[in-house]
Write a structure and sequence with these properties.
Elements: E1 2-3, H1 9-17, E2 19-21, E3 24-26, E4 30-36, E5 41-46, H2 54-60, E6 73-74, E7 77-78, H3 92-101, H4 106-111
Antiparallel strand pairs: 1-5, 2-3, 4-5, 6-7
Amino acid sequence: ILTHLRPSESMMGEIRKGVRVDGTLVVPSEFRILRETREGIELKLVIHSGLNRVVRKMMEQYDIEIVRLRRTRVGPISLAGVSSGQWRDLTSGEVAGLYAAVGLNDTERDADR
């Protein structure tokens, strides 16, 4: 997350405790300031929720304007090296990781092929 507003420590603490979004309490597993650059303040937010626009809604509640939002990971899949608008095939290990993340075993995975 890139923003121009540096969140206060009390605001950071409140967000770390959880933010209610669309009736669901979203508790980040990590929320911290990464660095300050000429462009603004870079924040890192790690959540395990797939709610629609959840990051924007969380920041909106604290009047933190998002200048740029970049997803770097989706579940066990890292997006490092994949440019915006591009795609790549998943490795077999990534596919196995996705099945494991949703609680399916190898037998169920092989039956889907």
